Amino acid sequence: MNPPSPALCTYCGAALDALEIHFGDVCFGETCIKRRAEKDWGAVRDRAAENDGVSDPETYPATPIPAQQRKIEPLPAERVALFRTHLETTIAAAFVLESEGAEFHEAEPESSWYPPALSEWLGAICASCEGYCCEAGGDTAFLSTDTIRRIMRREPGISAESIAARYLERLPAESYAGACVFQGPTGCTLPREDRANICNVYLCKGLKTAKWNWEEKGVRRAFLGRMSMNGLESYSFLAMDDEARRDEARKDEAPPGGAE
Ligand code: SF4
Ligand code: SF4
Predict the structure, then answer these.
(1) 131 within ligand 1 shell (Cβ under 6 A)
(2) Of 201, 224, 241, which residue constitutes the final position of a domain?
(3) Cβ-contact 79, 55 below 8 angstroms
(4) pTM over cut 0.90
(5) CA distance 44 to 187
(6) Is there a domain that residue 14 lies in?
(7) Are residues 219 and 102 in the same domain?
(8) For strand 221-228 and strand 62-66, is the pairing parallel, antiparallel, or unpaired?
(9) What is the pLDDT of residues 160-182, one digit of tens each?
């Protein structure tokens, strides 16, 4: 029997990996993502602009992001226990590997290499989707021996107990149901330098589009469409350029009740 044919990107024909198939039929190559975003979202954006009275929608590149639909709930004790077990096992293994001089892969957080303004821009978009992708963090937060070894190398002499305490005391009282144990109501409760590397480097399709537009075209605007399996849940026009800042300043200076 022949093996099943691989799923291919609609635009470039590259074979799709499991994550790309989960999100659709386009690969995560920046050109393909951009083409899909513009094709599918241009019309949605223009209708939204009409509703909201946005006069220049074409200056807001269409940027689809997922819609967060999980509810906030108290972090269940069973999930804390599962995380604690994972943490303690991982820390113990990290100390053994470090003492053996085993191979080490985890670099410092890549996002710290981004210019501050770009980090702020990407952070604003992630805040707008309320960290949908953090659902994958589950009861482990992706913490691996390499994450722990990164801390050990940054802070020589730190004890296993101190590392464990650092993580446990950061657990939020409430988190998104079923998502990462560290995903609290206002976002991740871990500092970037203590997160697993994937937390600092992952960019969903929409975020890749926004980063590409920022770096390649100097665009500081995005039309964010929050999508679920049911379609478009909500949208917003986001801007971080000088013109948008001037508009905000003008609004702040306007007398209460609007100009007469
Ligand atoms: S990477 Fe994408 S899915 Fe994850 S928080 Fe940011 S915008 Fe949301
Ligand atoms: S550790 Fe933070 S960034 Fe990473 S998956 Fe959990 S909530 Fe998201």
Answers:
(1) yes
(2) 201
(3) no
(4) no
(5) 28
(6) no
(7) no
(8) parallel
(9) 999 999 999 999 999 999 999 99
